[in-house]
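Subject: two folds for Thursday's group meeting

Dear M.,

Sorry for the delay on this. The cluster queue was jammed most of the week, so I only got both jobs back this morning. I'm pasting them in the order they finished. Each block is the input sequence followed by the predicted C-alpha cells. Could you check whether the formatting survives your parser before we put anything on slides? The first protein is the one we discussed after the seminar.
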Amino acid sequence: MILILTPPFMKPNIPHLPPLSLKGGLKESGIESKYIDLSIRVILDILSKDSLSKLFDMIEVSKLDEDQYILYSRRDLYIEKVDTVIDFLQKKNDNLAYKINNREFLPESINFDMLDVLDNDFIDLLDISESGKYLATLFVKDILSFLSSTIIPNLRVDVFENSFIKEKFSLDKILKELESNNPLSNFIEASLEKIDFTDFRVVSIMVDSPRNLFSALFISRWIKNNVKDIKIVFYSDFLNNITDGLDRRKVFGFTDYIVSDLKKDPLISIYKDSLGKDNSLTNVTFMESGEIVESVLKDLDIYPIDYTGIDCREYISFFDRLEFPSKFLYENDWNRVIISNGLYQKDFIFNDFSTDFNSNQSFNLERVISNIKDSIRVTGSRSFYFMDKTLSPSIIKKVALELVRENIDITWVGNVSIDRDFTEDLAFLSSKSGCIGVNLDFGVISERVISLVYKNYRIDDIPIVCNNFTSSGILVRGSLTYGFPTQSQQELIDSLELLRQLYSLGIIHSSFWQKFRLTEDSVVYKNPEKFGIVISEKRSNQSSIDYRERRPYNLERYYSGLKESSYSFINNLGVENSVDSWFDFKTPKTDLNRRFIERILKKSKVKYKDSDTVLWLGSSIYIEEASSDEYKSFRTYSNRIYFEYELPTKLALWINSFKNGTESGNLITFGGAKSTFPKDIGTTFSDFIRSDIWIELNLAGLKIVTN
C-alpha cells in the first residue's frame, strides 16, 4: 500500500489537486493508496485556541517590534476568537458574517493596516458573506504573519500567491533550521504520530516549492527514524530541475527517490521494487554508488481526481485577494477536475506556463464523466472547477453534450480559449450543461504582441467570445498582462480602453491584471534579443528570472491605476471615464475609437461549416395530426417560449431527427442536415435557415455548434 502525504504548507482552502490525481491513477492500476493532507492538519492545529495560547506563551516580548507588540498585546482577543473564525471559514456558522462586518468583532492588526482606501471601499461593495470571509481571512493572516516573524519562520499560507516565483532559498539554511527548536516541528511530529504506518511500503511526499521543503525533510527524517522497511519518494519538479547536483546529493540523505513528473508509473515501479518484484525504475532519480542516476520518460496521461477519504469540510475558505471575486477560486466545496492534458493554444507564452503544449492528447470523455460522477458521490457537491489552463471549443462541446445527454446536474466553471468557435450556440450548450462562469486570458491586447504568441487569434475575437458567453447568462472573467517585454505605454492604455468598453457593454463581469514573469521555459527567455531584454541573472533556485529591458519607461507605475480601474469597473463605477484619468501622471491617449467593440459586434456574423453539428437542446417535441395529411402540428417550448406551428410533415420530421440524433449520440452535421432537407415543401434550405421559424427554433433549442 502507498501513502501519499502533502507537507505543510499548501493552500488551506481546497485539497491539493496533484496527489488526488496521483491517487486516482494508482486506483485505475489496481494499487491501493491513502492520502493524508498534513498541511491542513497542521494549520488547523496551529489555528486553535489551545495551540495559539501556548505559542503566545513562547514569545520573547523584549524582542518584539512596535507592530508585533501591538498584536501581542491583543493576544487574548486572538485566542478567544480563533476557533469561532475557523468554524466560520469552514462554513459551520455563516451568520457570523454579520458580526464580522461591523468591524468591532475582530481585532485588526498587520494585514488590516496594509489596506488602502480603495481596498476598504471595495470591501463595502462585496456581499455580506464575501466581505465577512475577506475580513476573517485578514484576521487569520494577522496571526500567521505574527507567528512567522517571531517563532515559526516562513509560516505563510496564501490561496492565490505563489511565493516560489520570487523566493530564494538555501538548502544549507533549511538543513540548519531542521536542527533548531522550531515549533513547526512539534506540530508536524504530533500529526505523524497519529498515522499507522504498518501497511505502507512506500511513502510519497509532495514537495512543490522551497516553502514546504523544510516540512518534507522533517517528515522524511522522522519516518526513517521511526518506521522500518519503507521507501520514501519526493515528488518534486523543482528539486530535479532547479536545484544543482551538490544540493541534490544532500537531499538524498532524506529520500530514496525524486520524481519530477507527477505520474503514476514511477511510483508503481518503486512500489513493485519494494515488494521484490522484477522491475525497472522509470522516470525516477536516485543515488547509486554515490552517483545520481536519472531515468526519464515523459508521460502525457492524466488521471481522475480521487476524493475518496477526503473531507472537504475541514478546509478553510480563505478569501485573500480582492482582484479575485469569483467564489470557485476559494470555496472549499467546489470539486476540482482536470479535463485534458496541456494547453489549447500551442504558442501561449504570456504567463510562461511550463506545461507541455501538446494539447488534448489525453482527453478521454468516458473517464471525465466517470470522474465527475465519482466526485459527486464521494463529496456530495455538484459544483466543479475545470482546472485545465485553457480548454478548446471541441473539448467543451463534447463534455457539455455528454453532461446534457446523461442529465448530470452540475454547476461548473472553467478556463477557456479565446476562439470564435465559442459561438453563441456553443455558449448555450455550455450553459445548458451547467456552466455559470468562464475565465479568459486576454494577455497583452495588442495585435503586434499577439502575432508573436498566438495563431488564429485577433483582438476582434475578444468581444465576440465575451458577448457569446454573456448572452447565455455565463459570467465572464478576464485576466490581462502588463509589463510584457516590448509592450509600449500606448498598448497598455489601449488594453485598458478595450477592457473599459467590455464593461460598458456589459459583456464582462470581473477582471484582474497580472505582472509578466520570465521563466526558463518561455520563448522570451530563449529569444531575449527578439523581445528586447537582457537577462541580468540566471538563478538556479527560483522559477522567475530577473531581466532588464531596453525601453526607457517603466510600466510598473501603472499598476495602481490598473488595479483601481478594475475594482471600479467590477462595480460599474467610472466605466464612462477616460482611461487616462485613472493615473496621477501623464499617459498617452488611447488610439481606440470609443465605439470600437460596439462596431465589431455589429459586424459579427456566424458562418456555419458543413462539419458543424446540429443539436436539439430544447424540451420535448410534440408532432400531432393537423388539418391535412401533408401537415403536422409541431409544438415545443422552453422556459420562456412556447412554439407551435403547422409545418409540412416532412419538415416536422426533419427537425425531429436532430432531437433523436442528440439523444442517441448519432449526431447530424450541418452538411448532413443540408443534404437531407426535404424537397417540394415550398422553401429551400438556405431560405429556411434565414426564416422566422428558424429563428424561433433556435430560441427553443435548435443549435449548431463547432465539431
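Second protein, same layout:
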Amino acid sequence: MVLLVSMFSIAPVDLPPWFSALSIALNSDVDLDVSRIERVPMSTLPIICFRDGSPPLPDTLNTSLKDSATSGINGLDVEQCFPMQKNITMKLTNNQISPGVWYIGLFNGIGPTRTQSKMIIRGPSYSFIANISVEACTNSMMRGDFCNSSVYPLSCAASVVSNALEAKVNKSMLENLVTCKSNFEAFCVHEGVPNFFSLDIMNVAEEIIITATNIRFNVTGSNDISLMCFVRHGAMPSVTSNDYSIDISKSPLVIHSPLIGRWYISIVPVNLTKTQDNNVRVCYSVESQVPQCPLGKAGPNCTMDSYLLQTFVRRGSTPFESYYLPVVGGVSYDSANFPLEPLLENSSYIGEPDNVWTYFLLDIPRGAAGGNIHIQLSSDMKISYEVYARFGGLPSLDSWDYYYANKTRRSDPSVFFMLYDSSDAKVNFYIMYAREGTWGIGLRHLNTSSDSTKGLTSMSISLERCPKRCSSHGECKFSFDASGLTSYSFCSCDRNHGGFDCSIEIVTHQGHVRQSIFLIVSNAAAILPAYWALRKKALAEWVLYTSSGISSGLYHACDVGTWCALNYNVLQFMDFWLSFMAVISTFIYLATIDEVLKRAIHTAVAILTALMAATKATRSSNVILVIVIGALGLFIGWLIEISTKYRSLSFSIGISFNFSQCFQTIKRWIYNLAKTLLRRYHWAFALAGFLALAMAAISWTLETSETYWFWHSIWHITIYTSSFFFLCSKANIEDTENQLPTNGNYELTHQDSLPRTG
C-alpha cells in the first residue's frame, strides 16, 4: 500500500479472550533517524498509532517522538503513537494488552494541516507491507505467554445471603446478589505458585467482593499464612501489572464500581513459615459476590437514580448518527433535548447535599467506534451540575474517564475530550471516537439544598460523526476500516482551515485573497502566445492558448473557493487537458509540415493528453511526459520534412570505394541542414524560450502544499511566456527559403501579346 502526504490508513485487529500474543511485522521505505526525529516537520512525519477499542487520532498528547515503536511499546497504554521506521517487528503478549478490538493506524503527517484540503499533494510518500498475526491458546482455559497457565472460571448464580455479608452490605443491594465460585472446592499450592481465575461482569454492578475461604495448610505445625491477591481488568495480573492487590487471607478485596468485562484474579501464597516438611502447601477456596442495585437505582447503598437511555436513529445517509433519551414518561421523543428536573425530583441524599448523583447508561453499537459522544447542558440560570463519563461502568469522583466540573476543573486537554462551551449557562463537549460498549454518564448535583436547582436545565446526549459539524469550514466524511465493519468519520476542511474539527485558521482572509489573485490573474500570461498566434493566423493555436488561460483561471477560482462555474472535476480536467495540448502544440507549430499532417498529429496528441488528464492528472511526471511528447512531435515533423525536401540526396548506384567523396557529400548535407535550421529560427527567441521553460520546471519542483499558490503562479507566467518566445522564434519560411537566388543567369524572352489567328 502507498501512503501519500496527509493520508492515513486504519486496520482493526480483533483479539479473542484466549489469545496469547499479537505479532506485527511492518516493512516500509521510510528512512528516518529516530535520534533526529524532532527535526522532521510534523506535517510530513510518518507515524504508527495503537488504540484499544476505537480508531486512533495522531494528535493525542501522549504522542512519543523520541522512542521507537519497538522500545516504546513496552509502556503501551490505551492509545500510543510512535514514529515510523523502515522495519518494525514487535510481539505483544496477553500480559501487555487486553483482548478486544485494537486499532492500528498509519498516518503520513500530523498537525492541523493533516485535514486541510490542499490544491496539490506534494511531499514524501511511503509504501509499506504489514503482516499481522494473532497466536491463540488451543485450550480456552489456558493463558500466559506460552499458554502454560490454567485459568479457572468462576461460575455465577443467585445465592442466599450470608449473615456476615448482610451486616456489611445494604439490603437493597442484596436483592440481586450473585455469587461466583470455581467448580473446584479447594486449591492446594506451594509457596510462590499462582492460581489464576476469571470473573465475567456482564452488567453494571456496584462492587465486587473477592474472598478466600477455608484457608489451611496440608500439614500441621504452620500457622502463618499470606495469600496475595492481584486483580486486573482485561489482562493477566502480576506483581508489577495489576489494578488491585491485597492480602486476601486478612480481609476480602472490595472493588467499587467495577468495569464491565472480564476480570482476572491471581492468588499467590507468600512468606510461608518453613517446616522440616518441604511439601507444605496452602489450601483455600475462592468465591466472589457481586451485589447489584434494583432496576433504576445505582450508587452507594443504591440511593441514586439510574436511567437507561434509548437510542433514536437520526434520519439521513450518515451511519450510526443517533440521540439518546431516557425511557420514562413525560419525555418528548421528537427532540434530542430532555429536561433534567422531572428526572431529579425523586433523588435523595442523606446528610451529603453535594454528593447526589443521577446516572445515565447508553450503548455504543458494534461498528460505531468512529463516532463521537456529544453532551450538552443548557439552563436559564447557572448550571449546578458536574458531568462525569466512564466507559464500562458508573463514574464517581475517584473513577472516571472524562469529566467537566467548571471552567477550571475538567479533564486534561486532549483531542479525545474537546470542550467547546463552558459558560455558566451552557456546557458543550465531545468525547471523540468513543469505544464500543456501555458508557456511564453521571451528573453530580451541586448545592441541592439551595434555590439554584429551581432553574430549568435541559440535557442532550447524541452520537455524531464529526464534531461541531466541522465548524462550518469543511465536509464531514466517513469511511470504513480495512475490515469493512467499523465506520469512522473525519473532517475534510477547506483550503483555509485545518484541525480534526476544522476550527484552526491556517490561511487568513487576507492570505486567501492574495492567493486567489495570484493563481487567477497569473493566467493572463496566456494573452502573449494567443496574441502572437492570432497575428500569424495560427487559429488552432490561438484557440488553444485562449481556452487554456480561461479554463485555468476558472479552475483555480473554484479550487480556492471563490466561484465554481462548472463542476470541480470538469474544470480540473479542462485545465490540465488544455494545458497539455497548449504545450505540445507549441512544439508542433515549430515544424514546417503540411497542415494535413499537423491535424493528424494533433488528433493523436488530443487523445493521449485526454487520457493523461483523466487519470492522475496532478502527478509530477506528467510535466516531463508532456515535454517529451511535444519534442517527439517536433522531431517527427522534422523527419517528415527532411524526407520530402532532401530526396535528391543519393549516392551512386554503383559500388564505389571512394570514401573521401562519400564523406564530402555527407558533410555538405549536414552543413546545408544546419544552415537551414539557423535560417529557419530566431535563436535569440528560442534561447529565451528555453530559459523560461527552465524557470517553469524549477517553479514546479519548488511547489509544496504551503507555497503552492506562489510557485504555481510563477509556473503560469513562465510556461505561457516560454510558449510566446518559442512562437516568436519561428522565422518566415516563405521569405527565407522561397526567394530567388541573387546570382545566376536568367534569360528574358519576348512574348507577343497579340492574339494569334488561325
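Two things I noticed about the second structure. The chain has four domains: 2-143, 149-290, 323-465, 509-642+670-733. The first strand starts at residue 2 and ends at 3.

Cheers,
T.
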